[in-house]
Design brief:
single chain, 221 residues, globular
């Protein structure tokens, strides 16, 4: 009888938890391949492109760069990033055979996956890889990023800001604004790509949500 009397309360408690609009912050591990080949290619990229002669392919994060994948599924994107070497991208392979990747990947429903440790080097933004954590979002020009992804990016960046001295949060399309700053490290003045991700509107919303962090403004060109 006592159990029966408590049952309605338990049902209400479970319902209130499951129906809560407050998101729970979680990161799911989904590591891409990191082997000796990827390590060596990363160290070579750091040296040849960024002018940094390191013994480990690590970064000191001061920036977060937000991207979209232009690929419409987690598994397809994972398959693109997983190989240590890059194929089929003449605009990128001329600079290095190291595959592109990022530290994080966020699905359309806001689920966050960690592909690489946060301080492990990833090739995702020309001139800034050595200091930038990359966040890729499933979506593209025909699939604008979702409100769930907006919230997930905000929560993830707040989490990273507590751990590292993050000064900038930028959209990939803004990376060339740093060419005249001390942060820029790319030896080839002609190695550039034109980017639009993750969209101006998304970045405006994200910056508004993060305004209390007092991040540094993007340099003007």
């Amino acid at each position: 009888m006592r159990l029966l009397k408590q049952l309605p309360f338990c049902i209400l408690l479970i319902a209130s938890i499951s129906c809560s609009s407050k998101s729970t912050f979680r990161i799911f591990e989904k590591p891409i391949t990191w082997n000796q080949e990827r390590e060596e290619l990363s160290l070579n990229y750091l040296k040849e492109r960024h002018g940094l002669d390191q013994t480990e392919a690590t970064i000191n994060p001061t920036m977060v760069v937000v991207h979209w994948t232009a690929v419409n599924s987690i598994e397809s994107t994972f398959d693109v990033f997983d190989s240590p070497t890059l194929g089929g991208r003449a605009d990128l392979t001329g600079a290095s055979n190291l595959n592109v990747s990022s530290q994080f990947l966020i699905d359309r429903d806001g689920t966050i996956f960690r592909l690489l440790p946060e301080t492990t080097f990833a090739r995702h933004t020309i001139g800034l890889n050595y200091t930038a954590i990359g966040i890729e979002n499933i979506g593209g020009p025909n699939d604008p990023l979702t409100k769930e992804q907006l919230k997930a990016n905000e929560m993830l960046i707040r989490h990273l800001r507590k751990k590292y001295e993050i000064e900038y949060v930028i959209g990939h399309y803004e990376y060339q604004n740093f060419q005249e700053t001390d942060l820029w490290k790319e030896y080839d003045p002609d190695y550039r790509t034109v980017k639009t991700d993750p969209g101006v509107e998304f970045m405006e919303k994200l910056r508004k949500n993060l305004s209390d962090l007092n991040l540094k403004p993007i340099p003007s060109l």
